User: Fold this.
Amino acid sequence: MTSIALLGAGGKMGHRLARNLRNTCFDVRHVEVSDAGRARLRDDFGIECVPAEAALAGADVAILAVPDTAIGKVAQSVLHLLKPGMIVIILDAAAPFAGHLPDRPDLTYFVTHPCHPPIFNDETSMDAKLDRFGGIAAKQHIVCALMQGPEAHYALGEEISRTIWAPVMRSHRVTVEQMALLEPGLSETVVASLLDVMREAMDEVVSRGVPAEAARDFLLGHMNILGAVIFKEQPGVFSDACNKAIQFGKPMLMRDDWKKVFEPDEIAASIRRIT
Assistant:
């Protein structure tokens, strides 16, 4: 049986993982430094935490379920407890990309992250429809990267990833550099920023007299059909009027050089700000 030490088990992300790792084929040892986190695990799942030394003794895998800003510090603090050949799983590409992991060629570093449940889906249960983060009832895709270590370790890393992010549909293998392009590059710098602009635009038309509920309904409905056409979820074309609005609107909203946010230096700078 594969043994897993889950560090940060009582935190926001660790709690999600602890729930999904219950009743699996893995032997999970839970580590949590905060009293509140330990109490949460005990109350919600009947889980008792153990010291890091006990959790990592003989463990095959360590999962660092801690914030990006703490990964380097936590990894260094337990470095002497990580046996050669151990798989260390990190849940985001930021810290690995920034070089915050210890220089230990004898360890395997495996990075995984959820795509989150897609907007266009086939969910029918209310639990799944309301699970917008994923990992509870809604199906989602994931990305995985073997940063360093033997190729044979990829299969186990992916199996654990499918378990902690379950239920999972597609699992995409990427590099850490590609994962950094996806986040923060694509998902946060671009998508989150543009969504924030959309919210500002909605508030603006409300300030100009449109009823707030009407503005929200109009925006979200149009996001659905426009997104379905743009991302080829259904066949269709925009009207001539819509195409003219796009042709005029993009230069008003977007700098000509906006794609430089994906340049390596820009991605690195963004990750430095995060970590």
About this structure: DSSP finds eleven helices and seven strands in the chain.
